[in-house]
C-alpha cells in the first residue's frame, strides 16, 4: 500500500520512527488571533497560524480555519493571542494586544457540542472579553473501507506442501519509510486463497487521500485480485463526545509495604520537594488528559493494601480523601492532594488485591448502560497481583460493561503476570468464560522514562501509550450494544450585540 500524505498538520514534533495514526482530524474556527501550539514534552510555544483581519467590529467572524490532527491520548496545548490593528500614520499600521487564552484540544472537543468558551486574560486589572473555540470533525475521518482479496495460482513455497499465504499492507511515510496498517489472516495449504473481507479506517489506510492509493504488486504476486472495495461512513468517538457522553475517571493506588517507607528517598511513594514520584507522574499524565472529557471534574480516588486509622484494619478499597461516602476529589489536583494526605495517615501493608477496586467501578458502570457515561479505571501498582483468579473474574465481568482498565506498573519489579491481563494477544478468561472484549491496557512505567531526565516527556510518552486504546474500546462497547450517539446541541448563534469575540 503506497500513500503520500498531503496537507498534514501535526501539533507535536514529527518523529518518523514513532509515527502515530491520528485519531481523527478536527477543524478549529478562530477569529482575529494567532494560534500557538506546543510540541510533546517541551514548553516552547510555536506559531501555528493566523487568521485574516476584519475591520471595524468587536465580534469578528473569520473565514480562516486551522486544521489540526487530534489525538485522544495526547495533551495538545493551544494558545490564542488576540490583537487589534490600528492605522496611525507612519508606520501605517500598529498592533495592540487584546488578550490571551490557553486550553487543550481535548477541552474543546470534550465540551458540550465541541464548543468551548473561555475568558481572555493577559492584561492585568482589565476584563478582556471572551473567546469561543469550536471544533468540527472532518467528514473523511468518519470513513472506513471494506476490502477483500483473493489469490490465483500463487507460487508454491512449501517444500512438501503448497503455501500458507497472507497479505501485508503498508502505508508510506513522508520520510520514505513504511508502516504496517493491516495484515490478513493466513490461509493454510493453498495456492488459490480467498482472504476474509476486512475493514480499515481511511485515516489509517491513506489519511483520507483516496488519490494516493495504489497497490504495489511484489514479484510473483501479480495473481492477487481485489474482489471488492466499499467505502462506509461510521459514527466516531467524537460523535459520542459531542453528543454529551461523559468519560468518568477513577484512580486506584497501591499502598502495599513493598513500595517502601514513604519517608525514605528509596520509596516509590517518597514525597520529594523537588519532583513528582512515579505514582504522581503516572496519575498526572493520564488524569490531565481524561479530565477534559468529564464536565464536573469530580473524580473518585481509591487506595488498596493499607492499614487505616484509627483501628488499623486492612482495606483494599478505601477513599483517599478519608470519606467513604463521598470519595470524589475536585480535579486531578484534588486527587493528587488526597494521595499525599493518605500517605501521611495510613500504614502501608498488603497484599496486592485488584478485584475490590475493579468491582467498585464496575458497580457504577453496571448502573449506566445507555451510552451517556463510560468509565475508565487507572490502577497504579508496584508488584505482583495477589488475587489473580478473582481479578480475572472481575475483568471478564467488567468486559460487558461501559468500562476500560489501565494498569501502570511502577518500580523495578517483574510484571510478567500483568501481561496476562492485557488481552492484546490472548483474550483473558475465567472459569472457562472469555471476556467479551479487551478492556485492559498494561504498561511498565520504566519503559517510558526519558533518559535525559525530562519528566514532562516521560509522562507524555506514558499517557500516549496507555490511552491509545480507549477510543476503540469505547466504540466496541457502543457498537455491540447498538447505542447511537445523542444529537449534538444546535449550532451556536452569536448575540445581536457585539459583546464578545467569537473564535
Write a structural description:
It is a single chain. This protein has three domains: 16-140 and 490-502, Immunoglobulin-like (Sandwich); 141-233, Immunoglobulin-like; 246-480, von Willebrand factor, type A domain (Rossmann fold, 3-Layer(aba) Sandwich). It has helices at residues 105-110, 202-206, 237-242, 278-290, 331-345, 355-366, 388-398, 416-419, 455-467, 470-480; strands spanning 24-29, 33-38, 45-50, 65-70, 77-87, 93-104, 115-119, 130-137, 143-151, 168-172, 178-183, 198-201, 224-233, 246-254, 298-304, 306-308, 313-315, 318-319, 328-330, 347-348, 373-381, 403-409, 429-430, 433-434, 440-444, 501-502. It is built from ten helices and 26 strands. It is an alpha+beta fold. Strand 2 (33-38) and strand 3 form a beta hairpin. It is globular and about 75 Å long. The protein is 19% helix and 30% strand. Residues 1-120, 127-251 form the C2 domain. It holds the Pfam family C2. Residues 248-452 form the VWFA domain. One of its GO terms (biological process) is cellular response to calcium ion.
Q: Which key features would you list for this structure?
A:
disordered N terminus, 26 strands, globular, 3 domains, 5-stranded mixed β-sheet, Immunoglobulin-like, Rossmann fold, 503 residues, 10 helices, 7-stranded mixed β-sheet, calcium-dependent phospholipid binding, disordered C terminus, alpha+beta
Produce the secondary structure layout:
Elements: E1 24-29, E2 33-38, E3 45-50, E4 65-70, E5 77-87, E6 93-104, H1 105-110, E7 115-119, E8 130-137, E9 143-151, E10 168-172, E11 178-183, E12 198-201, H2 202-206, E13 224-233, H3 237-242, E14 246-254, H4 278-290, E15 298-304, E16 306-308, E17 313-315, E18 318-319, E19 328-330, H5 331-345, E20 347-348, H6 355-366, E21 373-381, H7 388-398, E22 403-409, H8 416-419, E23 429-430, E24 433-434, E25 440-444, H9 455-467, H10 470-480, E26 501-502
Parallel strand pairs: 8-26, 14-15, 14-21, 21-22, 22-25
Antiparallel strand pairs: 1-4, 1-8, 2-3, 2-5, 5-6, 7-8, 9-12, 9-13, 10-11, 15-18, 15-19, 16-17, 16-20, 23-24
Helix pairs in contact: 4-5, 4-9, 6-7
GO molecular function: calcium-dependent phospholipid binding
Family: Belongs to the copine family.
Biased composition (Pro residues): 486-497
